[in-house]
Amino acid sequence: MHLVKALAALTADLELRQWFAALRTGQCARVMAPGLRDARALAPLAPARFPNAVFCTTPAARFWSRWPREWPVPELLPASYDVFHAPFLPLPFSRRVPLVLTVHDVIPLLHPEWVTRRQWTQLQAVLAGARRAAHVIADSAATRDDLLNLVPEVADRVTVVPLGVAAAFLAEQTPERVQQARLRYGLKRPYVVSVCTLEPRKNLPRLLDAYQVLCSRPRWEHELVLIGSPGWRLGPLRQKLAEVESDGRVHTLGHVPDDDLPALIAGAEVMAFPSLCEGFGLPVLEAMACGTPVVCANTASLPEIASGAAVLVDPLSTECLAEAIADLVQDESLRRRLAEAGRERARRFTWERTARQTLAVYRAAAGARH
């Protein structure tokens, strides 16, 4: 993980240990708790130098959801640890070691119609963890504000720490590398790209509607490329894809390896990201880092992340979305301006900066303990 590596490289004064919750036979020793079928104990993995901080790296949802509230919290962490950081779910490891909890978004409670029951339940666990955490990290000011609307009592314990952009997206994508990626995925014509998990809040049926509007115009040559793994509640999207994929102008690539993704984004003339709600919006930053102009929604965290380096549109308006994409495709000077502004914006979001701000939160949480 990018944050773990950045923290480990930041200073030799601390010791970082990664922990995970395993639920498969043979991965680590059993947790001896009644009724917890086939659960495993938490065990350290590949300790790196970083004294007295603990970083929980796995979404151990089943472990947390099966832990009855009437059971005592197991003290699985040595009292010598200064901080336990849970970047996903606040597992009940300890009450004596200060908890730092990262909240990426609270979308399941704001819009339960977009998520699964499991995701809604997980977020309930996150909010419970936030109430007992020594400190909470939010990815964006928008996420912080949404969180405080739900749990206002944590207002004095929340810090916004933005995510970073991986170096692979900031690196120059040579024309040869871009061409190889395009040939590998059969992309012979100019294209607009959208990168996201295929799920309801990503608003992809409306993007497909906007693309159909564009295809109805004379001399429209660009294809649409959707990159991302299938998510949940895909019925409306599958129905819409069945309508538009038959002419071969829409490419659904699914999950793309990390080695190919920057080149595919860099090869696009426009990135379209009409998501209805985001806790951060990392694909927007990744596209800007690649120098690809972005059209994104004007909702939630996206204006905060784009900050003038992207075209913002109403994600509920098919016509506005289509016009914004068309304007960028047709205006080369605008694309150049946004490409440069996007690169400059993305350079500010480094994992080193994220690590430094996270370390400051660790020190504050550890200091409050003593």
Task: Describe the model.
The chain has 370 residues and is α/β, with parallel strands linked by helices. It folds into two domains: 2-164 and 351-369, Rossmann fold; 167-346, 3-Layer(aba) Sandwich (Rossmann fold). It contains 15 helices and 13 strands. The chain has helices at 2-10, 61-65, 107-110, 117-132, 141-150, 167-170, 175-184, 204-215, 235-244, 261-266, 282-289, 302-306, 318-330, 332-346, 351-369; strands at 16-21, 42-48, 53-56, 83-86, 99-103, 135-138, 158-160, 191-195, 223-227, 250-254, 270-273, 294-297, 311-313. The strands form two sheets. It has a seven-stranded mixed β-sheet, with helices on both faces. A six-stranded parallel β-sheet has the order 10-9-8-11-12-13, sandwiched between helices. Strand 11 (270-273), helix 11 and strand 12 (294-297) form a beta-alpha-beta unit. Helix 8 packs parallel to helix 9. The radius of gyration is 22 Å and the shape is globular. The two termini are 30 Å apart.
Supply the key terms.
seven-stranded mixed β-sheet, Rossmann fold, single chain
Percent of residues in helices: 25-40%
Query: Radius of gyration in whole Å, from Cα?
Result: 22 Å
Shape: globular
User: Sheet bearing the most strands, described?
Assistant: 7 strands, mixed
Strand content: 15-25%
**What strand line-up does the widest sheet have?**
2-1-3-4-5-6-7
